[in-house]
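Box S2. Input/output pair 1.
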Amino acid sequence: MAVRSFTSNSKTIMKKNLSKFCAAVLLVVAMVFVVDVAVGKVINWMLPQISNQGDTGKTYYSLNDVHTPIVIVGSSRAAHHYVSQMIEDSLDMSAYNVARDGCFFSYNCCVVNSILDRYTPKVIIWENGTEYLYEGVADPLENLYPYYERNSWVTSTIREELPWTEYSRLNSSLYQFNSVVHRILMRYRGRNSFVDETEKGYLPLQPKKLKKALVLKHGEQKYAKLSKTKVERFKEVLSRASAKGVKVVVVDSPMYRLCDVNNKSAVEMRKICKMYGALFLNNSQLPEFLEHKELFNDPTHMNTIGAVAYTDFFLRQIRDFVNN
């Protein structure tokens, strides 16, 4: 009898402990859910207030606010190579450079599509590396995570490019904003004293004394197969721009590196541009720049002296296309 009583008491205690444990787990889950929802609402409220403040704000601005007749999009090469004021003065239309460091093909497809949804610019200058249509080319999307389920182009691109195990986590605001929340908070805190250090989005790189002299080398060709997804996405963007009468210039600016200007991706890019009436310019191997390493701060980025010289050269290339 004593054994049965002990066993019965043990079971009762175990059930009570299990109930307490389950209640504690449910409480923790509920608290995490509440915090997750709260973080999402607070960050969503903050984002518009830091539009165009720093890199994080620049993404918000490019997706939601830019409205100039001329828009420059692309990665760091666009941000550092196209002088907005020179473009404005030459083409007699206001211009803004929304290019952001470390943001490549798929990111900029989302930017261009979002711009076309909001208004019809006169000209889009799209700095596009001619290797971007290959499978396997670096194409990070982390800077778009805060706009998942908030921007349809971002949502569809992330779902196409990333595995379900990754994008399913983006249903959590804590995960979605994890990499940018500190930058958003800092920008929001200093929003009233923020000074835009860009020149209408253009980021000049001051010439610097290099620790190691630049050496002109052949770039390594790592890729062989075109990405069907990226080819179709490129067609979609240019088709939408063409339908709205937007003039698009797709261009690869100078670099201090030798590469094949007729690689498979470049040839496909040129063909698609022709199909939709866009101007394609492969300027990566211009002798005028390859012969002057003093115009570069590193093999892929020109300094401000190079950028001014290049923007002047580029404007002479596109003036007739833009004005006709």
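Box S3. Input/output pair 2.
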Amino acid sequence: MKTRKKILLIISAVCIVVGGILLSIGDVMGGKGISINLFDNDKIKLVSELEEYSINDMDYESFDSVFLDLSNCEVRIMRSENDKFGVNMKLYTYNKDNIEFSVENGQLTVKNTSDGKNMLFNFGFFNDKQQYLYIYIPDGKYDFIHVSTSNEKIIFEDIEVNGEVYAKSSNADISFSDIDASDVTAYSSNAEIDMDNITTEVLKLETSNASVVLKNVTADSLSASTSNSTVEFDDVSGVDAVVKTSNGDIILNNIYFDKSLEAKTSNSKIKTVMSGERDDYSYDISTSNGTISVDKDKCGKKYNGGKGSSKVKLTTSNADVVVQFQ
């Protein structure tokens, strides 16, 4: 026991000393961010500077798709103001050498070339500024944009794409606004997905332990799923939709789908405000230990009715289901 206590005391002392050194460095550097790169040629290396870089001379005519695979770096895709392709980056000096741009078979690829032997720790308590990569693209020039990152958010703003827009992240939010594309796909975990003013044929959204929020969206086919959190729609329309969560509310306001709407949760309520009238829909609604209300009529725990062409299936447990019209 005494030996174990001595070891713990030594470890604690080392941590205190290292922490003091880092704080001192941060103070000397005027509050700049500090990153520590471990295992770079078996040495510990301090990487302190965040620097900005720009690339504005790439010929976008040489590629029609964009593929990004990064980590620990915020990615933002925006419409170009001058109809030219451009890149702005703010990266730690060390990371700049690990970001590679290449064009092959009509695809621009931006990726982290680190072989996994290097480990970069960012002590952000010295500085709230983070690494980012902003890409500016002309409207309607690309067939496919794929962005993958981790631990930092992905943002698409005001762009038009001929084909698919795809975003995948973990532990960080994904946000799309003012997007026109044939397909829109977003996958995340432990982080929110937010869509605003989207026009697409196919919309696929999936996360966990965080909400999915849609506003002003038109999609022929729509699927949105999460767990342990809410799904919220406001002014959303299309042909068919599937909405799933668990232990979270489903709130759908001002919605209409030509063929079908299926929404399922558990231990949480479902509330919908449908465009049109009650007779426009047919219903398959069920709950347990809750009540169903359709157009203010109490319907018990199960309700099947209506002869409308648009099918509505709503399922929950231990909570109420409310259907209203406007």
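Caption for Box S3: The helical segments are 2-28, 93-96. Residues 2-28 form the longest helix (27 residues).
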